[in-house]
Each structure stands twice: as structure tokens, then as C-alpha cells.
Amino acid sequence: MKVNRYVVGPVQTNCYFVINEETKELLIVDPGAAAEQLAQRVQAEGVKPVAVLLTHGHFDHAAAAKALADAFDIPIYAHEAEKETLENAELNASWMEGAAAVYHADRFVRDEEEISLAGFSVRVLHTPGHTVGGCCYYFPYEDVVFSGDSLFCMSIGRTDFAKGSASELVRSVKDKLMVLPERTTVYPGHNEETTIENERMYNPFL
Fold first, then answer.
1. How many CB atoms lie within 10 A of CB 9?
2. What CATH number does the domain containing 175 carry?
3. What is the per-residue pLDDT across 146-198, written as a single tens digit (0 to 9) for each?
4. Which of 36, 42, 144, 200 has the most CB atoms lying inside 10 A of its own CB?
């Protein structure tokens, strides 16, 4: 596995390219902006996109998903509980950019569902609190998890958006993420990567 991070959009969101170096297949995680530039990076890497994975439906994570999905004829994945957030401009916070927008997913996944994409086994971990249907994508054989805005280095996601819940988010992170192997690398939706071990020891919210 090769992971490339691209910081996109007005709030510096991490979009990740998850590349299978053997098959040259690509998963795109949280393309929140810069669709044209990300498409150019796909061409530059010489990889074949397989799917877009959305950790949640906020504009800064989902806004460029459709453009990339259309460009490469690939499906968009999201948790089944996130459909309303994607399709509701108030809930997806697109109003923060000054224009209401709606987003979509083609395939809705469930908590603990294991999907096979790009030669990887991916486990869906439902982590509500930041949004109702927020989730993380855990790659157990690579010891990697993409945590969206659920878990950050030394912090957790905001819960002051519509339908957010601080207590629910803390519970989600403790029950779903802190039980992962301590060596697991965490790729969050903003700022720098961390590890489960580091967050167990030093995250003040946990």
C-alpha cells in the first residue's frame, strides 16, 4: 500500500490516494475539493481509480466526489446512516461556502461490513458523533485506518454542527478505534497522521 495525501479546499482537508502498488488500483478517500487537480494526479501516478470512499458527508470531504466518480466511472461509498447528511445542505454544511449543495453516494455500507476494493480488505467502522453516519475505513492487513473527522492527532472532531454529539463521538472513538492494534496508523481528515498507540496515551478527549 502507498498512501498519498493531498490537502484540498478552504479548510485544508486531507484527501488520500490509497494505491495498491501491485495492481496499480486506486481508492480516493474524501475528495472535498480540487477535482480537476486530483484527476491530474491520477494521471500522473498512472493508476486506475476503483472507488471513492467518503468518511462523512460534509462539503469539505464530499464536494469533489461526483466529479471524480463521473470522470473515472467509479462508485461512491458512504455509510448508510449518512444519506440524509449528503442530501441536506444544512446538514452537509455546504452553506458555509455560500451556496447550498447536495451530494450522493452510489453504495451505502453498514457498520462492520467488510468490502473488497482494489485488492484490499476494508472494514467499515461506524463512528457517529461528528455526523450521524460518519465512519472510518480500516485496512486490517495494512494496519491503517482513515478516520475522517472522528479522530485527529491529539483531538477529536467538532460536534457543534447539526445533529452532532460530543458524548456519542467520544464513545464511538473509544469503542471502535481505541480497540484497534496500537501499531495502526491513523490518517485523519485534517492535520497530521498519528497512531492508535499515541492517541491511547496522549489524547486528552479519551
1. 18
2. 3.60.15.10
3. 999 999 999 999 999 989 999 999 999 999 999 999 999 999 999 999 999 99
4. 144
Cα-Cα-Cα-Cα dihedral sign, residues 124, 116, 188, 14: negative
Which residues make beta-bridge pairs with 120? 117
Quote the cell numbers at residue 68: 471524480
How many domains are contained in the chain? 1
Single out the residue of 11, 59, 6, 66 nearest to residue 32, CA to CA.
59
Q: pTM here?
A: 0.98
Cα(129)–Cα(78) distance, integer angstroms: 16
Go through the chain and tell me how many residues it has. Answer: 206
Please name the amino acid found at residue 133.
G
As given in the structure block, the three cell numbers for residue 143 are 494496519
CA 88/CA 167 separation, integer angstroms: 23
Which residue in this structure is represented by grid cell 455560500? 98
Q: Which of 15, 55, 21 is nearest to 36 (CA)?
A: 15
Task: Report which residue type is found at 123.
Answer: R
Which range marks the domain in which residue 22 is found? Answer: 2-202
The answer to whether 107 and 85 have CB atoms below 8 angstroms apart is no
Task: Answer for the pair 47, 17: CB distance below 8 angstroms, yes or no.
Answer: yes
